[in-house]
């Protein structure tokens, strides 16, 4: 049996490692804080078989957001296995709940969502130069599976957002609903919902792949040293509106966030109806994680979308 301090010395290449105690725990993973060569490191731990996929996805997402230099995010250090558990080590931040930085958060979130578009536009402008590499991501998806909670979401690349969202988000969750609950009403409603998707996401709606946090409820936002911060992402390149859907659920982010955000990225026609469509994924995901308490909201949205 190797002590955690020894494991961190080896994995992070540290000399002096001391435990500072528990760093809190969510409904999925627990965490501890360590002092490694004088800097605090936050280490998440999970013993479930799916933990490696979950932490690899989270680490890739943290790195992707960090690289945009748009909004503060803990830098991932290493994913590793130790004593039958999987761990994700990252920078430690002293976080406070998002309040004073709400407007700044909205503006920086918009910058994050526009960062890929900025790369694409720059790339197109310089495309005449010999040996110039194409910049920016042109498809919807992500390089690895990412998890909203413990459920791994497929992120196979697609050139069509409607197809990506229908297959890799809604259908993936509904397949789990069928497996876990054999819910006939949900299964009967799905073809009717699927038929109406093009009304909500019409061909004429211009959607440039945006780097999304993917699980942007208030519990994954904070303030650090007077700056807005996000963490615990489930990243993908998708429609920017998808990130706003869960941001309005479960108590929601402060109103100032949305005002500042839409000051940079105005709402497109059909925004409110699409928010219901995008919230449906999160209600289905909660149904699959926490049980039938979320069935009513899932079915209610599916009925609304089936009648469009």
TrEMBL record:
One of its GO terms (molecular function) is protein-ribulosamine 3-kinase activity. It catalyses: N(6)-D-ribulosyl-L-lysyl-[protein] + ATP = N(6)-(3-O-phospho-D-ribulosyl)-L-lysyl-[protein] + ADP + H(+); N(6)-(D-psicosyl)-L-lysyl-[protein] + ATP = N(6)-(3-O-phospho-D-psicosyl)-L-lysyl-[protein] + ADP + H(+). One of its GO terms (cellular component) is cytosol. SUPFAM superfamilies: Protein kinase-like (PK-like). InterPro entries: Fructo-/Ketosamine-3-kinase, Kinase-like_dom_sf. It comes from the Eukaryota. It is an enzyme of class 2 (transferase). The keyword Lyase does not apply. Keywords: ATP-binding, Kinase, Nucleotide-binding, Transferase. Its EC number is 2.7.1.172. Signal peptide: none annotated. Belongs to the fructosamine kinase family. This is protein-ribulosamine 3-kinase. It comes from Ciona intestinalis.
